[in-house]
Amino acid sequence: MRHTARLLTGFALLGAAAAPAHAAGSLDVYPSNVVPGSHVTVNTPFCGDKDAATGDAGAVGAGTFLLAPSAHAGDVVGQFQVPESAQPGTYEIVVKCAEGNRQVKGDLVVALNAAHGQMQPRGSLKTGVGGALGPDPVQTAVGVAALAVAAAGGTWLLHRRARGDGI
Predict the structure, then answer these.
(1) Residue 38: how many other CB atoms lie within 10 Å
(2) pTM to 2 decimal places
(3) Who has greater pLDDT, 86 or 12?
(4) What count of Cα atoms within 13 Å lies in the side-chain half-sphere of residue 65?
(5) Which of 1, 36, 77, 133 has CB atoms 3.0–4.6 Å from 86's, for a disulfide?
(6) DSSP 8-class letter at 46
(7) pLDDT tens digits, one per residue of 55-76
(8) CB burial of residue 105 (10 Å; 0-12, 13-18, 19+)
(9) d(CA 141, CA 163)
(10) Omega of the bond prior to 88 within 30 degrees of 0, cis?
(11) Hey, is 125 helix, strand or coil?
């Protein structure tokens, strides 16, 4: 019983010690949902307020950017612009602290911009290539029956040829 109590106490202390580290290790990306051409602000308390940091938005095509100490105590902040050519999707933004080679990551979601003529495709395309099963069950049954007759006839012909009866 005493061993279990020590084990639970150890886990509780470990959880309490890990909670502040996780909170300090966050990267705020604002706004987190953007359209191509938008400006994005990134800030974090992870690197401290005495040192600069370098951000990497290369995944979205924006390259690197600098983060500097901000007026908000304990944070570094930086900005970059999402390129007009950015494709819709979720991109990882990485900030590396100048001291200690530490890094923190956050996500940026790029969506289509209807104002610039970018639209999300809807509906189906008429390509002329159809599926094997049509909407008519009678035609489907006739097609399956024709395939079954062809397979049976081919098997019968191969069986006759193998016996030497000829065709």
Answers:
(1) 17
(2) 0.55
(3) 86
(4) 23
(5) 36
(6) T
(7) 999 999 999 999 988 877 778 8
(8) middle
(9) 33
(10) no
(11) coil
